[in-house]
Specification:
The structure holds 3 protein chains of 3 kinds.
Chain A: E1 14-25, E2 28-39, E3 43-47, H1 54-61, E4 69-74, E5 77-78, H2 84-91, E6 94-97, H3 109-120, H4 125-138, H5 154-165, E7 172-176, H6 184-201, E8 204-209, H7 212-218, E9 221-226, E10 229-234, H8 236-241, H9 245-252
Parallel strand pairs in A: 3-8, 3-9, 6-7, 7-8
Antiparallel strand pairs in A: 1-2, 1-4, 4-5, 9-10
Chain B: H1 2-36, H2 43-53, H3 58-81, H4 88-127, H5 130-136, H6 141-179, H7 184-194, H8 197-223, H9 228-258
Helix pairs in contact in B: 1-6, 2-6, 3-4, 3-6, 4-6, 4-7, 4-8, 4-9, 6-8, 8-9
Chain C: H1 6-28, E1 39-45, E2 56-59, E3 62-73, E4 76-83, E5 94-99, E6 106-111, E7 125-126, E8 128-129, H2 135-161, H3 163-189, H4 191-223, H5 227-234, H6 236-258, H7 261-268, H8 270-299, E9 301-311, E10 316-328, E11 331-340, E12 344-352, E13 355-363, E14 366-377, E15 380-387, E16 390-399, E17 404-411, E18 420-430, E19 433-440, E20 450-460, H9 461-468
Parallel strand pairs in C: 1-7, 2-6, 5-8
Antiparallel strand pairs in C: 1-4, 2-3, 3-4, 5-6, 9-10, 9-20, 10-11, 11-14, 12-13, 14-15, 15-16, 16-17, 17-18, 18-19, 19-20
The chains are: A alpha/beta, B mainly alpha, C alpha+beta.
């Protein structure tokens, strides 16, 4: 009587399925019965206000946080009920680009990108170096292998972070506000990179962002998170046409509307 | 009346929080034990930490050890002179250093130097999401970050303590014999006669415990940092204070158990 | 530029530390006197009190060896010495135990023998020992002497010390003086009379000799039955009377022995004796009862323990706080609370329109309770009762003087999942401190099986008093 595996049809459309997720921190309810399906092989952008629980949602997908109630299915496995051992197996399907890239300060670029390879594969050092160079090339960075993270610019750090995220050729890559803190040109470059990478590596991508410009560039599907639930979900065209006042206000950046700015 | 109730309430909560924290530190320690038992150990990381905790602390430890020995010799001399027992200064310095001051002072110095750095390093890694990154890459942070530090602490503290003991006795000798004019033969003979191997070894066992405490506490505080740069600063301070207090308290119990 | 690798630095430092440790150990340790250098010699002392292993062996104040062992042999102390090979001991050397000063450490002093004697071979014996002036004996004798002196001085003080005594003494001295004065005067005044007295005395003694001769003849007369006294002594009748009296006396005691008469009955009756014996026995028994009660009270012990367990696979900790009450050796009660962060999980299935949804509820940070009764049979203890707020049983096996404990527990026999089985070993590696390792919930069908390591602290109520109360004096 295993609870962790559900039998579903073989022609599955969804890579990640969030069912009725509730999560509070103390008195504050962050996720309130959230449901969301994330399509296989597509990029889904989750938008929402700052501090609206987007990061919390992302952390649930990769099991860094556990829901108070509800289930998170990744590739049909309920990761909320897994122990650490099982969770680590699931996490090998993931790559993640953190907001500030979260490169290890104590290692150079080579060490950072090679880290998951050295950790989880028995590849020879030469082979690992080859893969690292290949990944760095894929993100448009070559010749920085021996630099330390502190010597890199913000955009370069993000690229290295992405190279590290795709080092193991994962099925899913999560992006935590990939364009925050970058100038418009760099923002565009990173967006392009996400699109390219998604295509080249055949990835399922989940991007959380509040940068309106980026949303329509990278997203195949867009989901709006508001007050702990997904209030709107659909293609970029559908989102653009939406009459939902919350979404309208968010996209136009107006102060007038249901979203209160203290 | 409400004020009193609130005070009692806060007091009780503070105690409970402390107990809870002790429990969490213990759990962290147990998880370190568990991960230590699971090869492969990251030898390179361990060596790096050993260099940081041990090799780079030699200078401060030599300095504190030497001067402590010198001061003890000087103070002891004035006391023992009243009984015409100046030659006991050597064994007093040696016993004091090997049993208590060597391990405790070394531990306190290393806490200030390396324990704080552990808290700051891990704290920074926490607030910049590097620890989350480890989790995401299915790499356990306890294994990668904490185990090497704890192993380094447990191994290097006794090594530093030996140096401290030796320098303390040497310092005591140089104050005692050439400066204060104690007979050198009596000085050394009394050390040989009154100091046991057990005194040295028990001091080293203590040092290993202190190494464990300062590294586990430093890592715990760093690992559980919240709140950005300010949080890192707070974690560092708390780590030093908690580790120093724990070292002094556990010193009493270790002495009660061992000697 | 020349640079050293991390590994080399660390290695070098550890090496230096080990060399210093080795040097210090060499200087202070027993290895200071060449460990296996020299040969063994045995010597038997009446009393080796205060002599310790590694004590010095000296000739004329020069160290020539160390005491290697002290053991008991036929009620005496067999001391094994290890003596430098360059030092040869003659067969007639003499060994004594001496001490440095009154309070100093003891050492063995060897007085050289006669030159030309044969040498003692390795493993041989020193036969001559001197019973040393034991400092303890000396002190105790000194004590006696002091006590005597004290007594004497005390009584003297009583006589002399008080005002009355002083007056008396003065009077005595005064009297003595006046007596001697008088004596002097009498003697000088009565010189003639005294001479006469002495002459008289001489005469008197001559008279006395005559009187004794007369007495002698009287006694002889009595002996031969002459005169009244002689008749009494020699009279047969009187003697017979005496004999008869004695005979009747014997008769009475015989009767008593045979159980005749009241006293005889009392003494000779078996029942009386039995009664008496019984009475004594019952007193004995009640004494035993009291003894048992007292020893029970001594056996009554309570233990406080805390155990933390870290579960590998869920990366979470479990805490146990237990109070064990042990009224006697083979019975105990265990009360406690368990903090299990995994909490209890309840799963409910709801079927709506053919699709089953499963909702799951976790109660985290719930405190669970333990209440068990246990009985111990030698090395095995059986426990039953409440384990983590569910019913269960457990078995413990103890080894190596209780320092190793192997435990198996089974509880939470819920119908829809496998029972919670747990097995672990716990080892005491320091006083009060234990480490444990085992497997929790190892037949779980919910994926909760996990290896764990644990750490526990156990205190007996006495220990607690010791640790918290009195400061032990470091030796």
């Amino acid at each position: 009587m295993f609870l962790t595996r559900n039998t579903q049809p073989v022609t599955r459309k969804y890579m990640i399925k969030l069912v009725d997720i509730h999560k509070s921190f103390g008195q504050q309810k962050v996720l309130d019965g959230l449901n969301l399906d994330i399509e296989d092989g597509k990029t889904t952008v989750i938008i929402g206000g700052s501090g609206g629980g987007k990061s919390v949602l992302l952390k649930h997908i990769i099991g860094l946080l556990k829901p108070d109630s509800g289930q998170v299915f990744v590739d049909d496995i309920d990761i909320a009920s897994l122990n650490d051992k099982g969770l680590n197996e699931v996490r090998k399907k993931f790559g993640m680009l953190f907001q500030e890239a979260a490169l290890f300060d104590s290692m150079n670029v080579m060490g950072n990108v090679a880290f998951p390879l050295r950790e989880h594969t028995r590849k020879k050092e030469k082979e690992i170096r080859e893969i690292v160079r290949e990944r760095l090339k894929a993100v448009g960075l070559l010749g920085v292998e021996n630099k330390m993270p502190s010597e890199l610019s913000g955009g370069m750090r993000k690229r290295v972070g992405l190279a590290r995220a795709i080092a193991m050729h994962p099925q899913i890559v999560l992006f935590d506000e990939p364009t925050t803190g970058l100038d418009p040109v760099m923002t565009e470059a990173i967006n392009e990179l996400i699109v390219e990478t998604q295509k080249n590596f055949d990835l399922t991508c989940v991007v959380i962002s509040h940068d309106v410009q980026s949303i329509f560039t990278v997203g195949h599907k867009i989901a709006m998170l508001y007050k702990g639930r997904i209030i709107e979900y659909g293609t970029p065209e559908k989102i653009k046409m939406s009459s939902n006042p919350v979404l309208r206000q968010f996209l136009s950046g107006s102060l007038e509307g249901p979203i209160s700015v203290i | 009346m409400n004020k009193i109730a609130a005070t009692v309430d806060n007091f009780g909560r503070a105690i409970l929080e402390n107990i809870e924290e002790m429990g969490r530190i213990l759990i962290l320690f147990l998880s370190v034990l568990a991960w230590m038992a699971r090869p492969p150990l990251k030898l390179r990381l361990i060596f790096k930490q050993m260099e940081f905790v041990g090799v780079k602390s030699i200078f401060v430890v030599v300095l504190t050890g030497t001067f402590t020995g010198m001061v003890m010799a000087l103070q002891g001399y004035y006391g023992f002179r009243m009984f015409n027992a100046e030659s006991l200064v050597g064994s007093t310095v040696a016993l004091g250093m090997t049993r208590e001051l060597g391990p405790v002072l070394t531990a306190l110095m290393v806490t200030a130097r390396a324990g704080s750095a552990m808290a700051a390093e891990l704290g920074t890694m926490r607030v910049t999401e590097q620890i989350d990154a480890l989790y995401v890459m299915a790499a356990n942070p306890v294994k990668h970050l904490i185990v090497p530090r704890v192993i380094a602490g447990v191994i290097m503290l006794p090594a530093l303590t030996i140096v401290s003991d030796f320098m303390g006795i040497l310092g005591g000798y140089f104050v005692g014999v050439p400066v204060l004019g104690i007979n050198s033969g009596a000085f050394i003979n009394n050390i040989n006669k009154l100091v046991d191997l057990g005194d040295i070894y028990n001091g080293l066992i203590k040092a290993a415990f202190f190494g464990l405490i300062l590294s586990v506490v430093g890592c715990y505080k760093g690992f559980n940092t919240t709140g950005g740069a300010e949080g890192v600063g707070k974690a560092t301070t708390e780590a030093v204070v908690l580790a120093a207090i724990s070292i002094l308290i556990s010193d009493y119990f270790l002495t009660a158990i061992m000697f | 530029m020349f640079s050293i690798s991390t590994e080399a630095k660390v290695g070098l430092f550890v090496l230096v530390a080990l060399i210093i440790l080795g040097y210090m150990s060499f200087r202070v340790g027993e290895s200071g006197f060449g460990v296996k250098k020299g040969y063994q010699v045995n010597v038997v002392f009446d009393n080796a009190a205060g002599l310790e292993r590694d004590a010095s062996v000296q000739i004329a104040g020069v160290e020539v060896g160390r005491v290697e062992g002290i053991s008991l042999k036929d009620g005496q102390a067999l001391v094994t010495l290890r003596v430098l090979p360059s030092v040869r001991l003659e067969k007639d050397v003499e060994a004594k135990i001496k001490s440095y000063g009154i309070l100093g450490d003891k050492y063995v002093d060897i007085v050289p023998g006669t030159e030309g004697e044969a040498y003692i071979v390795a493993g041989g014996d020193i036969t001559r020992t001197e019973r040393q002036a034991d400092i303890d004996k000396l002190l105790s004798k000194l004590g006696y002497i002091a006590a005597d002196v004290l007594e004497v001085t005390a009584s003297l003080k009583k006589v002399v010390g008080s005002v009355e005594g002083e007056a008396n003494l003065k009077a005595i001295i005064e009297n003595t003086r006046s007596i001697t004065e008088n004596l002097d005067r009498i003697v000088t005044q009565n010189d003639e009379k005294l001479n006469l007295m002495i002459a008289n005395l001489g005469e008197a003694s001559t008279e006395m000799r005559k009187a004794f001769a007369a007495l002698n003849s009287v006694v002889r007369k009595i002996d031969s039955g002459e005169g009244t006294i002689g008749q009494l002594v020699e009279n047969k009748d009187a003697f017979d009377n005496l004999n008869q009296t004695l005979a009747s006396l014997r008769d009475i005691t015989d009767k008593i022995n045979e159980g005749k008469g009241t006293i005889g009955k009392l003494i000779n009756d078996e029942e009386t004796v039995d009664n008496l014996n019984e009475g004594l026995k019952s007193i004995d028994k009640s004494m035993e009862g009291i003894e048992q009660y007292i020893s029970k009270a001594e056996q009554f012990k309570t233990f406080l323990s805390y155990r933390g367990e870290y579960l590998f696979d869920s990366s979470e900790g479990k805490g146990y706080f237990d109070l064990t009450i042990r009224p006697n050796e083979d019975k105990f009660y265990l009360l406690g609370v368990v903090a299990d962060p995994r909490g209890r999980r309840t799963v409910t299935d709801t079927t709506v329109g053919g699709t089953t949804t499963r909702t799951e509820k976790r109660e985290r940070d719930e405190l669970l309770f333990t209440a068990q009764i246990g009985k111990r049979f030698k090395d095995i203890a059986l426990r039953g009762g409440i384990f983590e707020s569910t019913g269960g049983v457990g078995i413990d096996y103890f080894a190596f003087d209780d320092s190793l404990q192997l435990t198996f527990e089974a509880f939470d026999f819920n119908s829809d999942k496998n029972a919670h089985l747990k097995a672990y070993a716990e080892y005491r590696f320091l006083k009060h401190i234990y480490l444990s390792a085992g497997w929790d919930d190892f037949i779980s069908n919910e994926g909760r099986e996990s290896p764990f390591v644990g750490f526990s602290i156990k205190f007996e109520d006495e220990d607690l008093k010791y640790l918290l109360g009195s400061v032990p004096i470091p030796n």
